[in-house]
Every structure is written in C-alpha cells, then in structure tokens.
Write a structure and sequence with these properties.
The protein has about 425 residues and is α/β, with parallel strands linked by helices. It is about 40% helix and about 15% strand.
Length: about 425
C-alpha cells in the first residue's frame, strides 16, 4: 500500500522549520566590524582565521564594558569593584567548563596562550613524572608549540621523542600509532586538527590506545575547539589545551584543561601571588588547582573577552558552524582542483576548514602578495610546522582557512584571484 501524500504545510510553517537549518554567514559577517573595510580598493576577504580569527562586536564591547565599569584586580580585594571583577572572572571559568564539558571548574586553568598551556604540562607534569629513557609520542603534523617544549624536556631529562608518521594524504593511521606505542611511552601529545593541512586526527581512538598502554594524552585543541564541538569527558583526554584568539576571542588568553586527579599531583609551574595558601621564609604551601597554576595577576580583561567569544559561538551552535565550514571546504576543494597549476596538500578524508596548496612556479609568498592586492588575506609560509614541510618537500604553502563568517562568495573571489596568479607565473 502506498502512503498518501501529506497535505502541504503553510508557507510560514515551512519557513519556520527551514530557518534553523540555514547558516547566515553573510549576516554573521556584520557582527565583525573589521570585515567592513576595503584593502587596496577591494572588500576585505579574510581567509587567515587559522592564524587568528577576527573578533565580533560582542567580544569587543564586553571587554570595553568590563574595563569601563567593573575592572579591578581579582581574588584579593574586599571592595565592590574587586568582588564584581572576581565574580565575572570566575563565571568565565564555568563558561569554559560547560563549553568543553569538563567535570569541574577546578579542571580549567587560564594561561596566557595555548602554547603556555603545553609548556605548563611539560614543565610541571613532565619534570615530576618523566625520567631518562621514557618516551613521548607526537605526530609529524604537529605545530612547533607541540614539538619544541618536548625537545627542551628531552634535552634536560634524556627522554626519547618518537614521531608517528603520516600518509601521503596527510593523515594518521591507527596501526602506526599502535606500532609506536610501547611500555616506555608515558605521554602522547597530538593535535586535534592540523593547523597546516586541516586533518582531523582520530583522537578518541588514539586516546584509547594510549591509555591501554598506560600513557597519558595531551591534545593540542587550538584548531579543534574552533571547528567542532568538543567534549573532553567523552574523549577521555588527560589534558586538552586551546587558545582564545583563534576562537574569535582576544590574544593573551589560553586554557589548559586537565583531569583533576592529574592536576593535583603536579607542582606549581610558576611562583608568585594568588597561587599560595601560605608563605613564610622557611616554607610555602600552595592552593589546589586551578589557582596553583595561575601565579600573579592573570589576563583578567582577556578572560572576559574569551567568555564573550564562547557565548557568541555557543549561541550560533558549534555543530552548525562545523556543518557550514564542511560545506565550504567541499565547495572550495572542488573549485581549486580545477586550477591545473595548483596542488592541494593534505587530502585526508576528515578535514576541517583549512586548505593548503602550492602553485607551479609561484612561491607561496608571491601568491600571498598578489592575493593581498586583491583584498584577500591568506597565510603563506611554513605555518609553524617546518618538520611537516620538510616531509612534504616544500618550503611552505599558501593556506586559506575558513570561519563562520566565510562565504561562497569569498571562495569564488579566491579562485578568481588565483587565476591571476596562474596568468602571471604561466
């Protein structure tokens, strides 16, 4: 029996159902004051969000409003401004906890940037729990921020740094992770998303494999939280770090999430005010996490900005942002592949909104300069991933990266401008 066709819904009902599915990137652009300007006589097209995202008016105004009305140092004052400032600061810790689904605000540490969060783990946890002969696993995709701190620790303690190789598509195979793990592996430190290629790593599976071997896992999520929802408890990550300025927030603020049972075993990273329980000339005792790791006056205004940025993307919906960027990625990939002198580097099946490419006869810096004259901002260089560039056999790439304010019109303008590059370099 064939089911009868349902009666057509009224037009306004159809619109109401469809509206939540629409992603109004063009409308969201209006929330970002900087995007309204012209560069070299052309409307600004900003395709460098993987380096640093632009800031919505909501973030700018939240920071200004806080400085105009509530600013004072936190935790130590009993006057009204200090109390208000402290309350707003700590409210953001709850905002972050909720954003990544941590179990407690005691697991949320504010740092000056994502890089500092990794260095905190290396200096505090690494120095206490690692010894000569122990191994740390990283991938060949890592940003310098997830390479150099471990090299410094290797030189100090006599550790071994093992590298998980990548495929020709720029992906990670779980069998290579298994082969690299051993009883000597104490930490696996990997990116959630490659900043250079956009590869989304299978981090949940990597975490499961590492834990089965008794190793802890640190995830560099500086590109992860920007492009997709993150649930640290579902992932079972021991550490997860990210930075504010890629998440539409200000510079000068980063986050370290750590399981509380791990954090409470770690010694202070720095000494100073606010991280102490008591101080005498003979002995100092320290607060519990997270304050143990937040010595000195923190980036108070920047924390307020981070909270506003998280509220902004949460109101839009991280799943909706991810879907929008995935659609853009597919659209841009198909368009760019039509340029016969252009080669995309990084073609993993699972990618975020990042496309790195080279063009025959054109240096990445030349590509970036020519596009800039058309008002298009991209990144050109090694993207703080020189070991990866060596593996790929290139000095660097041109990189276009997408955000919630990126449109198909932006992609079309990029393709047109690359046609000019092709004409120049033949």
């Amino acid at each position: 029996m064939i089911a009868s066709k349902p009666a057509a819904a009224p037009a306004d009902e159809l619109f109401a159902c469809a509206a939540p599915q629409l992603f109004a990137a063009q409308q969201y652009r209006k929330d970002f004051p900087i995007l309204s300007q012209e560069i070299h006589g052309h409307p600004l097209i900003y395709l460098d969000s993987a380096a640093s995202a632009q800031k919505p008016r909501m973030v700018i105004e939240a920071m200004q409003r806080f400085m105009e009305n509530d600013y004072a140092n936190i935790h130590r004052g009993v006057h009204e401004l200090s109390v208000r400032s402290t309350d707003k600061f700590e409210a953001v810790r709850e905002t972050v906890r909720r954003f990544i689904n941590a179990a407690s605000t005691n697991e949320i540490i504010f740092t000056r940037v994502g890089t500092e969060a990794i260095n905190l783990v290396a200096s505090s946890w690494g120095r206490k729990f690692l010894k000569s002969g122990d191994e740390i696993l990283i991938t060949a995709l890592e940003h310098h921020a997830n390479i150099v701190p471990w090299q410094l620790l290797r030189a100090e303690l006599g550790l071994k740094l093992r590298i998980i190789p990548i495929t020709k598509e720029g992906d990670i195979r779980l069998e290579d992770v298994k082969a690299a793990l051993s009883p000597r592996t104490k930490l696996v430190a990997v990116a959630h998303v490659s900043n250079a290629l956009g590869t989304i790593l299978p981090i949940k599976e990597i975490i499961t494999l590492a834990h089965a071997q008794g190793a802890l896992v640190l995830i560099d999520g500086c590109q992860g939280v920007v492009h997709m929802p993150v649930d640290v408890r579902d992932l079972d990550a021991d550490f997860y770090v990210f930075t504010g300025h890629k998440l539409y927030g200000p510079t000068g603020i980063g986050v370290l999430y750590g399981k509380f049972d791990v954090l409470k075993q770690m010694p202070p990273y720095q000494g100073g005010g606010d991280m102490i329980a008591s101080v005498t000339f003979e002995e100092t005792t320290y607060k519990d996490p997270p304050h143990r790791f937040e010595a000195g006056t923190p980036p108070i205004v920047e924390v307020i900005g981070l909270g506003a940025a998280i509220d902004y993307v949460s109101n839009i919906g991280m799943s909706r942002i991810a879907q929008h960027e995935t659609e853009l990625l597919h659209y841009a990939t198909e368009k760019l592949q039509r340029i016969n002198s252009l080669k995309i580097l990084g073609t993993a099946p699972k990618k975020a909104g990042v496309i790195s490419f080279v063009m025959e006869g054109a240096h990445p810096h030349d590509i970036g300069t020519i596009l800039d004259r058309q008002g298009i901002a991209i990144r050109a260089g090694h993207h703080c991933a020189q070991p990866l560039m060596d593996i790929l056999g290139v000095p660097g790439t041109a990189r276009a990266s997408f955000a919630l304010y990126t449109t198909k019109d932006d992609v079309n303008a990029l393709v047109d401008a690359l046609g000019k590059v092709q004409e120049i370099f033949g």
